[in-house]
Specification:
CATH class: Mainly Beta
Order of helices and strands: EEEEEEEEE
Bound molecules: FE2/S2 (inorganic) cluster
CATH architecture: 3-layer Sandwich
Number of strands: 9
Number of domains: 1
CATH topology: Rieske Iron-sulfur Protein
Low-confidence stretches: none
Shape: globular
Helix content: under 10%
Number of helices: 0
Length: 116
Amino acid sequence: MAKQWLTRVTELLEGVTVKFAYVQDGVPREGFLARIGDQIVAYENVCRHLPLPLDFGDNHIFTQDRQYFACQTHGAIYEPLTGLCLHGPCAGASLKPLRVSSENGELWLEVLDTIG
Ligand code: FES
């Protein structure tokens, strides 16, 4: 399985997402990482309502209180640990999780095997 280096664990701060580009099935895509307590999550940066990024290219994905992810286009609210849309036009759908591994303080995307 191919891996793609993303960032160092120490550079992933609580309440701030880190975006990254990757290619899957020959298609350029964008993902983002977030630290939620002692857990790290990663999702494809695509809303489940329409195939648009959650942000406007400005890495503004967390809500102001940093408790949820929000789609800036129509306001869908997602639960960070599960990716589940709690409120909005895609309620009940989930963000596409990406598999990330941690080795010696470095975070790697497992490129070829997304889940969900
Ligand atoms: S595109 Fe995200 S809620 Fe509509």
